[in-house]
């Protein structure tokens, strides 16, 4: 009887210790890929009718993304409210993608990059000034930017009619 009781206690002990050795659940990072991040880099001083290098630095988890499937720069004049132009970027190394672009006139512009990399799509946007602008141009650009936000929110209701800038 004592042998039977010792065997039972030993089996229970092994079963309890096995329950305590469950593998820890995998961390959230291994299940969800890190977000692709992008930072638009615009030269500080851009003059109309002179080529400017527009860049976007693409990274994921602090490492440069060298294998983006597509990087497009979409540019529009915020004062004129005109339609946008799209230009495919060239990968120049270390996660940096670039275009050369010549702006026609002094004004306030916006650029939005469309980056598809590692099964993700990110679209950072940045507004900047080319040359000298007036207070009136600034006010018009601000109004047009607000209208864009309103129009974009309305088109999210299922009407994907694209970008009208």
From TrEMBL:
<feature type="region of interest" description="Disordered">
    <location>
        <begin position="132"/>
        <end position="165"/>
    </location>
</feature>
<keyword id="KW-0732">Signal</keyword>
<feature type="domain" description="YtkA-like">
    <location>
        <begin position="32"/>
        <end position="114"/>
    </location>
</feature>
<dbReference type="InterPro" id="IPR032693">
    <property type="entry name" value="YtkA-like_dom"/>
</dbReference>
<protein>
    <recommendedName>
        <fullName>YtkA-like domain-containing protein</fullName>
    </recommendedName>
</protein>
<dbReference type="Pfam" id="PF13115">
    <property type="entry name" value="YtkA"/>
</dbReference>
<feature type="compositionally biased region" description="Basic and acidic residues">
    <location>
        <begin position="149"/>
        <end position="165"/>
    </location>
</feature>
<feature type="signal peptide">
    <location>
        <begin position="1"/>
        <end position="20"/>
    </location>
</feature>
């Amino acid at each position: 009887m004592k042998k039977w009781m010792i065997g039972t206690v030993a089996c229970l002990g092994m079963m309890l210790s096995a329950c305590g050795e469950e593998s820890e659940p995998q961390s959230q990072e291994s299940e969800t890929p890190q977000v692709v991040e992008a930072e638009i880099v615009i030269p500080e001083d851009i003059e109309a009718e002179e080529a400017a290098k527009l860049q976007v630095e693409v990274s994921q988890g602090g490492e440069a993304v060298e294998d983006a499937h597509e990087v497009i720069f979409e540019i529009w004049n915020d004062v004129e409210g005109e339609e946008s132009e799209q230009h495919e970027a060239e990968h120049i190394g270390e996660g940096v993608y670039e275009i050369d672009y010549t702006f026609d006139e002094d004004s306030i512009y916006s650029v939005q990059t469309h980056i598809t990399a590692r099964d993700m799509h990110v679209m950072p946007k940045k507004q900047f000034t080319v040359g000298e602008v007036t207070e009136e141009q600034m006010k018009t650009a601000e109004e047009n930017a607000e209208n864009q936000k309103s129009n974009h929110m309305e088109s999210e209701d299922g009407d994907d009619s694209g970008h009208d800038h």
